[in-house]
Each structure stands twice: as C-alpha cells, then as structure tokens.
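Worked example (supplementary).
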Amino acid sequence: MPVSHFSAFEKFDQLPTFFKKNQFQRFLDYTWDSKEGHTTDCMVILLKGKLAYERCDAPFSSQQKHRVWSISKSFTHALIGLAIQQNYIRLDDTLDATFPMAKSQYKKQITLKHLMQMSSGLDWQEGYEGNPIRSNVVEMLYTKNFKDMGATSLNQRSIAKPGQKFRYSSGETNLVMKWLKAKMPKTTYDHFPWNSLFIPLGIQTATWEKDHEGTFIGSSYLYLSILDLAKFGQFYLQNGRWNNRQILSPSYIKQAMKLAPSFNQTHLEGPSNRESYGMHWWLNVDLPNKGRGLGRPYKKLPSDAYMALGHQGQTLLIIPSMQLVLARSSRDKKKSLDRKKFFDLLGDSFHTEAL
Amino acid sequence: MKKVTFVLLIAIGLLIGGYFYLGDFPKAVAASFAKEFCSCLYVEELSEQDCAIFAKQIIPVSAYGINKKTHTIWAKGLSFTALAKFDQRHYGCRLMSID
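After joint prediction of all chains, the assembly is encoded as:
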C-alpha cells in the first residue's frame, strides 16, 4: 500500500486571506460546470506548499493516474536539467554529433537548446483536432512513425535556420528524449525518470510510456495522480528544491522562464500569437517585439506565472509571487476549456494585496 | 455512354485523389482507439465503459475487443485492425501493430 499522498501536504486553512469568497466561488462554479461542455476530473490548489483545495469527480480520485498529455513536456524539461547536472548532455550540444544523418546545412546547427525552445526550424504540423489528416502528431503517435517516434522530427525538412522560428512541436520533445537515450546506458535511461526525479520527490503514481525503440514519449504519454502533478509544480515553485535538498539547478529553471528568442520573431495565427514560451514551459511575460499592445497572455495573472498545458484541458499553473500551484486534470472532449476565462476568473478572485 | 464514362472517371479520380490526400490517416482511427483504450483501462484503471467513451473519436471503430489474459486491446476501423498491449506499471501501453 503506497504512502498516502494526501499526507504529503498539510492543509491550508486560510483560504479567505488569498481569495475573495464570492469570486473564488464563481471560478469554482465555472470549473465544475458540466453545462459549459468541458469536463474537469480533478483540481488541486496548493498555497504556500499546503493543500488549500482538492476535488475529484467520479470516476477519478486524487491518487489515481490521469494522462497529462503535453504537460509531459515540462517533465521532460526537468529530466534534461537533471541529465545536464550529471554530465550526460549539454544544451549547446549539436544534433549532428549524436545523429550523423542530420548533416544538412541547417540540421547540423540544431542544438539541444533549440529543441527545448521549439526553435529548431524543422517543419511540423502539430494540430490534430483542426486538421488530423495533415497532422504530424497523428502520424507520430498512431500511423507512420509510432515505432520510432523520436526519429519523426529528425526526418523532417528544415524550413528555417535554427533559432529563428518558433514552431510548437511534439516531435522535438521526442527527439530530445531519443537524444537523451543515446547519451546514457540503457538501464540508466530506463530508470532515469524514477531514480532522478520521481523517487526523490516521492512521486509514486507515475507511468511513462515508451515507443518500440525504448524512447520515453516525452511529448504526451506521462500519467500520474493530480496530487503528484501538483507536487511537481511545487517542486518548480521551490526552484528545484525538495525536502531540504537541491535536486534541480535553480539557474536551469530560471533559464526556462525566459522567452524563447524565436518567439518574438514568429507571428502565430489567432490567440496563439499572444502566448509566450520559454523552454518547454508556457509563460505569461509581455511580448515586447510583437508590440501592438499585446502585453502578457493572461492579464489577470501576475507576469511571473508559468504553465504546463496539455490536450483536453490539462493545466499546471505556477505563480511564484503568490506561492500558488494549481493542477487541473480533465477530459474536455465536447468543448475545450476557455483557458482565458478560467485564468481570468481565478485572477479576479485574488485579493489585490496578495498579488 | 460518354456521360457514364465521364462520371466513372471523375469518381475514380476522386478515389485516387482521396487516397493520396488521406495518406495514412485511416489507420489512425483503429490505432488511436486501441492505444488510448489500453492506457485508459490498464494505466488509468477506468472501467471498460468509461474507456470506450474516452477512446471514441469522430470516426468510430466498427469493433473492438479486450484480451484480459494478454492485456491487449484490438480495434477495427476503416478496414484496418490495430493492436495495443499493456507492458508493465512503469511503461504502460504501446501500439503494437496496424494491419
């Protein structure tokens, strides 16, 4: 019987000091309103490292595994940082040193950092809801490339010089994980997420699926409980420190929260143009070069907020200045969560002095 | 007769064009169902009923089955059959084949 995860968090009983009662209730009403079309399975809020709010609806419980989809990418960020600390890999390593087939003019300039910033310049069509027929993700997960997902991006053509163009790509994350696999002994790699991250954090519910080459599907296929997801958020909020032990370098985390240079140079269609991206984490920073008064993506959240976001509404929000972590697991199949409304309602409920 | 031949040629053209346009996409119907059903059942440990709802996409599969002894899920859709298998607690499920 695993140790109760619930006991890992003390209860926070001063909710009114953080949230305005009525506004917070409005936020909760929206989160759990099935008439809105989205389906929240679980939500947990930590304040100052303590459990301030927890709810799961059937069939889920707070200790049950739930797929996190693209939130997996931010766990990949942690693994790469840990591998860097152990001298397996470096952010300025170039792709061609490990993958000799990456020999074209642009491909051989791609560094690990470019991949972490989704800036390799490799062609990619991420959207699988809007246009599943042309989606590289569908090809990678289910058809052409499911046996060696890590190689999918490697075989894509370059459409820009590395570092010049932002293009969100699940293929880049899986290439990162394939690259990591090439840099360490097989048994080390197979146990690396557990030995280096999950066990030190006391995360006991994690499952991380692999392709037929043994590469962890860093883009999409991590499963863990909502409490373990919140714990990971708290770990980042504490700058990589857990139980008085510095596990992940604070400077590596800080680096991830800087806007990817390519992001300012890339015009994205629709609301995506207002978002901001660091290294495998979504940010809430102003977009100075995009100008046009865009400001930060979620104006009612502080600018130091950052997020891991996934398909069907999975959300992990971290606000260091408020010592807040919010984790939401969901199956938004009928209609996606209106994330802006969700964050606006949350932001409306903060006491201004808490900001 | 000319009209029939013309319509036939257009229909063949559309079929060939559609085949190339769709590429491997039809395989994804059975493959995504089998893989995501497998993870839903064996990793997230939800009920068969919940997993059938969760794994269902816009284009439904025509049939599926569970082999509880081998921890495998098969699904048929758009004339393809996909198989997914649960490996173990840490590594979950994998899509094994699409034929």
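Two points are worth noting when inspecting this output. The CA atoms of residues 98 and 182 of chain A lie 7 Å apart. DSSP finds twelve helices and twelve strands in chain A.
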